[in-house]
Amino acid sequence: VKNKTFVKLVLSNADFAFSFYKLVASEATDQNIFFSPISISASFAMLALGAKSATLTQILEGLAFNLKKTQEMEIHDNFCQLLHMLNRSDSEFQLSLGNALFIEETLKPVQKFLDDAKSFYESEVFSSDFNNSVGTENQINSYIEEKTNGKIVKLVENLDPLTAMVLVNYVFFRAHWEKPFSTLYTRQEDFFVDQKTSVKVDMMYRKGYYRNYFDEELSCWLVQIPYKGDVAALFVLPDEGKMKQVEDALLKKTVSKWEKFLQ
């Protein structure tokens, strides 16, 4: 990446992603964790367009930005670039990522905020009647169902009639493995939720070569499985009893090291 300020955004996003993961992991010790770091970062950065003074600082510093080294408008400009780069739809894969604001119809946000939210974050803005909570729930759910091609339905329910605004972010990703897995070899195996609990799930099987690396220092295997179109999934498998050790080491430098060895 040539743009130095753009690099700063990517690095800050990574810092936020890992610190957020560790916070959630410490509180949800017996649950699966699934989240999109860029969705959270982009959503709160967009909200920062309407904030000032202490609130503005808290939002941006909470997203791991060093405001002594990065100007606020640089952050918005770079998010605009990043979202434009990530949103892609072609024959190989589709990635759609976006925001929408559903605002109580009696509120009139400053026009500059609405304009900036659209120009930097491609956010759509809708007027909503939260007193009619069922109608607004249908409005939001229909929007998300359409944007995720029917994958996410009934995102919200039981909305409080006193709600002033709902900010939603969606991600839709569809891609094909570079080397497809045949469904003929799919079979049910035990997946271990923790040391005491296992569940039967469908497991894919395929014989072939994949880039892999064993991190002796952290006692974990890395496997990179490519999709068509210059995208790959990275799987990290800690040795038995080493999950906490691997989680504690999740930092930019660790992932950079893994990427180097997977080249």
From TrEMBL:
Pfam families: Serpin
This protein's encoding gene: A1at2_2
Protein source organism: Tyrannus savana
Keywords: Glycoprotein, Protease inhibitor, Serine protease inhibitor, Signal
Protein family per UniProt: Belongs to the serpin family.
Xref: SMART domains: SERPIN
A GO molecular-function descriptor: serine-type endopeptidase inhibitor activity
Residue intervals of the Serpin domain: 18-263
A Gene Ontology cellular-component term: extracellular space
Full protein name: A1AT2 antiproteinase
Domain of life: Eukaryota
Keyword hit for Glycoprotein: yes
Keyword Membrane attributed: no
